[in-house]
Predict the 3D structure of the following.
Amino acid sequence: MNTFSIGGVHPQDNKQYSAHKKIVEVPLPQKAIVPLSQHIGAPAKPIVAKGDKVLVGQLIAEAGGFVSANIHSPVSGTVTKVDTTLDAWGMRVPAIFIDVEGDDWISEADRTPAVNRICKLEPQQIIEKVKNAGIVGLGGACFPTHVKLMPPPGKKAEVLIVNGVECEPYLTCDHQLMLEHGEEIVVGIQILMKALGIARAVIGIEKNKPDAIENMRKLAAHTLGVSVQPLDLKYPQGGEKQLIDACIGRQVPSGALPIEVGAVVDNVATIYAVYQAVQKNIPLVSRVVTVTGKEVARPGNYLVRFGTPVADIIDFAGGVPENTGKIVGGGPMMGRAMSRLDMPANKRVSGLLLIPESEARRTDPANCIRCAKCVGACPMGLEPYLLSKLASLSRWDEMEKHNVMDCIDCGCCQFTCPSYRPLLDYIRMGKAEVGGLIRARAAKK
């Protein structure tokens, strides 16, 4: 079988609502709110102030540390304030507020559609461009991409694993990106191979996207060292460790990163952003977002500038259906329900899923029946029933000993539980507590 070897589930993919819908650009908002924490790591530090005029692509906030990312203006206009805003879950985050006055770009940005295939930059110059452009992983983690391109001492990359899996149900933005911008993605792959000093790349795509497999194979046919690996359908195959296992048969040890087995993993949307930054001088100011659901009037794949209110995006797709019970940022497995729609789209938002009321309610949990289905489904080889129990008892030290930090929040345990127990909810809570304890210990050293 062409898939990963441990755990996993097979949820209905429900991609038919937005699949093969061409990418359409959402109109610019009247006001843009640009969060300064759109990535794992420290928030970016603002370098503009109230009254400043900005252009699209202009740097407005600098990375706040090694694991951080630059932020660029997604619109042109006037900065009205640097303040905080509420995110989709009610947390206050720092942000830059801009009144939109047009769509004027920085002069060096090349927005012509012609594909620039030749990269003459040296590896370190490529890494610097990726860093300056504020590129992060667009598959969900939002880890700064330039950090991946600089393996720690003693570690060497051997293969680039390209994530074109898109295993999360409903989402189709990566699929459509491979159909419309496959050539640019292949150039981006070559750029990353050059930056890493490697000669091999494997593009993993699940078999429910045969047109994407065919297109990427055709485009990569004359590119030395690049191959396409069709994969059987299984969630969460898009997880880094699961994809490495599926594509090259290597298992990343507990607590380790992909570089431990010589792999670097990047999502196709991230690689397209690398192409735009390196070849077109366009920093990361937008992304393709799937807006979908069984009752959505115009489900599709939409190019969205960061800072655009979620409500504007949904309105452009036909508005919120009357029977909507929940709106999820992301997909149904790893996404989270939104508490508000005036929050701005950012680098993390890959999808907006509008779920009907009839499907939005959880079934009341029953007692655990010790069936161990959650153990069999866990792709990280953990014991979700035990971890959730320890979390409910606040036994954080024991959770750490049972490798809770290996959990990838995929939700397979909760999906497969016949008693409808909120396993992932408890485990997420435990991970947050254990992560805090680990950081506190590190700060004392």
In short: Residues 373-444 form one domain. Residues 113 and 357 are 42 Å apart (CA to CA).
